[in-house]
Fold each of these.
Amino acid sequence: MAEEPVDESARAPGAGSKVVAGNWKMNHGPAAAERFFARFSPAVEEGAVRLVFFTPDLSLAAAADGARVPAEFGVQNIHWEGSGALTGETSAEMAREAGAALTLIGHSERRHIFGETDAEVGRKVRAAVRAGLAPVVCVGELLEERRAGRLEEVLRRQVGAFAGSLAGARAAMVAYEPVWAIGTGETATPEDAAEAHGIVRSALGRRVRVPVLYGGSVKPGNAVALMSAPDVDGVLVGGASLDPDVFARIAEAGAVAGPGGG
Ligand code: PGA
């Protein structure tokens, strides 16, 4: 029997609108998370975009309790095992129990600083789906790969490592984050983003319809143009998600850019 295609429709607050996701990385402990939301919550319009926060594990509860706006919360990494002698790791089941609805997987810092492979990304995606945690899987090329004309090959390889597992997921997203644009101030043009997103969608295949986000030096000044590009359903924001006023302006940009997709 054919499986149902993944369809994100109408599940989350702000569903049908752009996704504006913050990746706090190793920033904002519990007290800072509370301070963030005390300022952020009154500054955003409820439901205008689908807000997602990837907090440090230890700040998840403080963030979820402190948010006065509808938002979803996730962790930044999981291990593929459910439990065991794996010091320092967190399983998908534990993340869920602690209140996470989503998890980033395969962020470029995980791939390039911690040496995570495509095969490990695939295992993590399967573990997340099994545990009912929505995987938000990151892909993206290095500058030398782009310069060598290998954009499509790299994205197809990275997406190929997990696309099959998404067919059974209740919810998922993919984030295209060119490695050369992360934390560098260099941003892909809306045309670059549209091209890469087209490749990602084609590599995912027609049965996996999930939002595809752009990430890499997104700021209030470029967010509307990026989110208005074809096939861009939202943004994944690192540095600019740490300041509540700046991130609220990016959320506003998402509302201006209009409905999402996926
Ligand atoms: P940046 O990070 O917005 O600071 O470039 C994006 C990311 O790493 O998700």
Note: The radius of gyration is 17 Å.
Amino acid sequence: MPTQSDIQQAIQALSFNPYTVREDFPILSEIFQRGEKQVPLVYLDNAATTQKPRQVLDTILHYYHHENANVHRGIHTLAERATEKYENARKKVAEFIGAPSEKTIVFTRGTTEAINLVAGSWGRKFLKAGDVVLLSEMEHHSNIIPWQLLSQSIGIELRYIPVTEEGTLVLDQLPQLVDERVKLISVTHMSNVFGTINPVKEIVAFAHERDIPVLVDGAQSAPHMPVNVQELGCDFYAFSGHKMCGPTGIGALYATERWLEEMDPYHGGGEMIRSVWWDRATWNDIPHKFEAGTPNIAGAIAFGAAIDYLQRLGMDAIHQYEQALTRYALERLEDIPGFRIFGQAPERGGVISFYVGNIHPHDVAQFLDADGVAVRAGHHCAQPLMRKLGIPATARASFYFYNTPEEVDILVQSIRKLKEFFGDGF
Ligand code: 7TS
């Protein structure tokens, strides 16, 4: 079992210090009153959303104090400032995921909207009744429902790559699952339930040999590991700013230039047009063709600031530290009798879904909250997967680079206390 001193050694070797970065996050100093006692916040719900550093918060304030104007339309100084900052943020996003050009980055509200954009625009143009979209059984609802909606309107069919008990994809079945009717594969890079990191590069290689495009849901991968979309080779990659220190309501879709050129607009309105007549219109260049209306300007600029922040720490170091912290947590949690983990893939990130004895996950989360520990309990927007696992929900702890081994210790202690509290009923 990695000891405190092992993990402290791992921390020494990092290019950042998880204890000092915490000072950048005002909310991490939150203290809750519990009767006579005060307990510090232990925030372990990072797969749902992450906290925001001062650098991102200041960027939002600075934007509204000094730069606020609409983008791409004004000639005045503020409009130029806002446009430059907004487009500069796009460049940062492109560079962050190794995209070949900022033209391949469409700002969206987040992963969900990015996937809906692909289903609504690419899907409607390139799919027809009887075509198959291949998903996996570990997808978040946001990579299931847009395809179900498309299925209801144009008659595509959905197939699913099965998952094993340990939370890995049964990729041996790909040759049987992928026939000539499969026209798109859309899979998550990292599961928000199991923490499994899927071998998307191999999936893309398999698909491209058959001329099948691939969408990667990067909601849980972009925040936690270095990602290079050109290396992965995927056609589409969707992710959210709020899961990587940015604000809510902003995210991005990467798509290859070829697809963006060929796809039709998703929403209609200002910004996305070149010329409009009463009965027709022509479209703006990519990516603006997909950004109708006034965008989330402050959000995009703050997303850029979040990327600057992460890159200062280093994505490799973030990944390395989270791996060490997850190992530290897993070994302590597995030591608790009756502790059951969902997701034992060898390649995994900092998401731990669990059951304690037969206590309902909502009770677990409530009990932990009394100790200041924030975990999520629920179906994690993966109801079909929960059904397959035969459970209504799990409790889930998920880490980010600002979590510490001491916080893991508090989680472990709190679960041990829970066990004592429930006694024989445990
Ligand atoms: N895909 C995955 C794999 C996710 O984990 C999530 C959000 C989404 C897509 C949707 O992202 P959004 O930013 O558009 O909402 N996952 C979670 C979660 O696990 N708990 O709350 C949100």
Note: The CA atoms of residues 360 and 393 lie 8 Å apart.
Amino acid sequence: MTGTRIITIKTPADFDKMLVAGKCVAAMHDVVRSAVEPGVTTGHFDKLARQVLDDFDCQPSFLGYGDPGNPFTGVLCTSPNSVIVHGIPGDHVLSDGDIISIDAGAIYQGWHGDAAFTVAVGDVPDDVANLIAVTEQALWAGLEQAQDGNKLGDVGAAIEATATPHGIGVVREYVGHGIGRQMHEPPSVPNYGRRGRGFRIKTGMAFAIEPMFNLGTEDSYILEDEWTVVTADGSFSAHFEHTVLITEEGSIVSTLEEPRPV
Ligand code: MG
């Protein structure tokens, strides 16, 4: 967090820059998604993503983030299997039956885009495939509620309601966020909530909405590297995220190759 509690209002010109950052993030996703297969390392994905940042004249959001004594060392977070978020790219080799979550961030002329997806590596059991599908569904249910005049509780409630029938654990410890000149801006955007409650969404705001769902319980802990967040019960975890801009013409998902209204 930045230490500020100010919720920033963006101009159309600011949104134009966030759209470029978003396109870059989408391209990072694409290049990594095409490279996912057994035998590949998470460090390889990071290398591919760095090239895309250069191609778009963007800077990484994640590299160097955090405590100066232990900054994040990747341009991606690469989170396999029971890693919920913030996995560090490196020597980890993917195997058939794994899942991998890729979180990418980019800055264009000072403005951020942030998005994540989870994909199966080869064949996975039905419950794992379902976890991935339900988490993606929940993201879109949340995005649809991110409209001028709605409340953040509408977003959280829609996400949570998608998980409930499946008995899937909704992570509460980590949440979505406002986004703009900072990757993480107020307000927090929880993946749970009550309709009609919470902060009112207004034109000019931007949010990163990001459900994190576990096959088991919601409980997590952090590994000794002080970054990697894993499920307490070792169950698999999925993570989907997009950045959404609340513009005068409606809400637009910016972190897609072709940004589109929601
Ligand atoms: Mg985020």
Note: The mean pLDDT is 96.
Amino acid sequence: MLSFHQARDQILAAVQPLSIEKVALLDAAGRAVAEDVIANRALPLFDNSAMDGYAVRAEDCSPGTTLPVVGYLPAGGALDCSVAPNTAVKIMTGAPIPPGADAIVPFEETEESPDQVRLLGPVKAGDHIRFQGEDIRPGERIIAAGTVLRPGEISLLASFGMVLMPVRRRVRVAILSTGDELQELGDEPTTGGIVNSNSWALAAAVRQIGGEAQLLGIATDNRDSLREKLGAGLQADVLITSAGVSAGDRDLVREVLDELGVKQQFWKINIKPGKPTAFGLKGRTPVFSLPGNPVSALITFEEFVRPALLKMMGHRTLAKPLFKARLQEPVTKKVGRTQLMRVAVEIDGDGGLQVVSSGDQNTGIQRTMVCAQGIALLAADRERYAAGDRVDVHLLGNSTALGD
Ligand code: AMP
Ligand code: MG
């Protein structure tokens, strides 16, 4: 059986980035830029003042010097004056440095009177000047392909006047829930009926990373129903199914996918929960068959589908970064299998991170997803961990808040 990492590597090797489209700068926020962004000019574009004060020639200045003020330069004003020897020009933050000047003396370091200024301290050439290109030089790479555009990146791109950004198109993900027992949300609950929550959970997870979810509804456990819905789902960029792939099932989902030309790449991963996960390809279209259990479906999405969708949307960072956290309580697990434990993540008294099981780890317990901020990856070869042992953890979804 494939290990956790083998399965993820195999999936990531099989999926390819989608085509590139150009979108308005603000619509690119939160998405990954598809190409390196190169500065088309310098930032700042011209030498300018970092302070409100006086533009001077440093060689004219020493503590106590008094200089006549011969001009005034507001930010955005015309550069219509210069600094001749032994003169000063009043200048505002962001205004261009006038010819002749090589330093700015902030107001706070002067005594002002209407037509002249007295300097209180020493002045060096270059003081309080933001030099052309000191932030970024023309031709420099300012953002690497695959970077997610946060407000900071948007700020930089806007400073360069870039109105359109190349991004990979949003992945269209068809989602199909399967099972005779499933009922839609509005239906009156029947004995033996299970509300189809997976479609909604998976759609939310797709949306959270910027994909477009297409809900195909429910297929019953019969070939005709599955053939019709799975066939429709294969028109999307990615197809996700849930249920009908466990050992106890009649394996109808995998059988019908096979009939429809989906080549199974693997079935079963050596993990708990999520073992019966299957992955196939129809041409270049990835098909993920996730377990039906709501907890297993979401965890296998998080670990295997999410990185694949991010690769398709051109992200550079695919797997969540792992950090080490201390276990608050001992854990015993089945040796020989990686356990993906739902954990509450907390900050301990020393400001370090600690984790504790978010509750009964039985996959039937949906509450544990709500109480969890992270997943702890417990190594296949370990059988027990003691309280205080450090384990690898990543946060769930796009969460940033920790538990309290
Ligand atoms: P299965 O993978 O078919 O063995 O299903 C495992 C469990 O998940 C069963 O209790 C199913 O009723 C439940 N289940 C399957 N599909 C869904 C779904 N779409 N929403 C909620 N629960 C589901
Ligand atoms: Mg079933």
Note: DSSP finds seven helices and 28 strands in the chain.
